[in-house]
Amino acid sequence: MRASRVRRALAVAVAAGAMVLSVTAASGSAARSMPTAPRLPAVRADTLAARYAADHDVIVRSERAARRMGDTSRADHLAGLASPGRQFLSFDPRDDGLAVEVLGDLAHADRVVVLVPGSDTTLDTFDEIGTRYASVAGGARTLRAEMHRLAPDTKTAVVAWLGYHAPRTLSRDVVTTARATAGGSQLRLLIGQLKKVNAAAPVTLMCHSYGTVVCGSAVQRPASPAAPLDRLAGIVAVGSPGMGLRSASDIAVRVPVWAGRGADDWIAGVPHTSVHVPGATIGFGTDPVSRGFGARTFDAGSGGHSDYFKPGGLALHNLALISLGHGEAVSHG
């Protein structure tokens, strides 16, 4: 029965995906004409300033290119990314785009959090999806602000990581693991880079929606090489359709695994199973908040799928405590 529900969901997604492609074709052609990503020095503490400067330059040039092509929507979004003080570890303006923003002093932080977003995250939605706290950059800002409120003497850095091509919600990719598998490889690379920048700071993966599938791919067994994962302090899954794992024991490192879901999150209705078909896996396996998965569950409040990083919310409060290493203070549902 569950398998048939997944197949029906796939059929709907494929049909809807055709409509999405037709609507986005015009803007996509402009995005493909953007400047190429710059060649950057290897990620180290002493190269961060150079990388930030180079990426700021390509963002500015990309905005100008978008305006020349008449793509004012993309240009306006890029103008926001080019605001003074923003720091991008990497950036690629082509197609839907890739962007990795750093909030805080990465090289000297006591705690580092990597926020991994889900479907529909692009350069055009990097700063805002419906409400600012629901975007990857907005969520990173509200999470870091809550961490500072709870522990003002702790130096923190939060990475807003659009380092993979997220699927569109109305597409067949959103119900398969293909994008997550590719993204997981890139996320593992980032974890290794963070270790080179700041070997002392523990890293927490904060994963939302389809981003939880990406995180599951990055940390699952067998892990080779396993070394980049040894600085992980925890893995958090919120609003998850499944992490592509049978249980937390499938993770290659022994760290706390947390899971939470808001009471009004529609993701609860997604079938938590997986079906292997030729060339693809449909569905994402065990529900991370179920007892059988083996994660530590926490109270994510009464909010919906986009409310986990809402200022003043119970979910954000608990996520900040976990990020600070204060899991003992987390409230449980």
- Major sheet: arrangement of strands: 1-2-4-3-5-6-7-10
Radius of gyration: 19 Å
Strand content: 15-25%
Largest sheet entry = 8 strands, mixed
Total helices: the number is: 7
How many angstroms separate the termini? 29 Å
Oligomeric state of shown chains: single chain
Please identify the structural class as seen in this structure.
Answer: alpha/beta
Low-confidence stretches: 1-29
Helix content: 25-40%
Average pLDDT score = 88
The count of DSSP E runs of length 2 or more, i.e. the number of strands, is 10
Order of helices and strands: HHHEEEHEHEHEEEEEH
Q: Any idea what the shape is?
A: globular
Characterization of the model:
The chain has 333 residues and is α/β, with parallel strands linked by helices. It contains seven helices and ten strands. The chain has helices at residues 2-31, 48-68, 72-81, 136-150, 178-197, 210-219, 314-323; strands at 87-92, 98-104, 111-116, 156-162, 203-208, 232-238, 257-260, 274-277, 280-283, 296-297. The strands form two sheets. Strands 1-2-4-3-5-6-7-10 form an eight-stranded mixed sheet, with helices on both faces. Strand 3, helix 4 (136-150) and strand 4 (156-162) form a beta-alpha-beta unit. Helix 2 (48-68) runs antiparallel to helix 3 (72-81), helix 4 packs across helix 7 and helix 5 packs across helix 6 (210-219). It is globular and about 55 Å long.
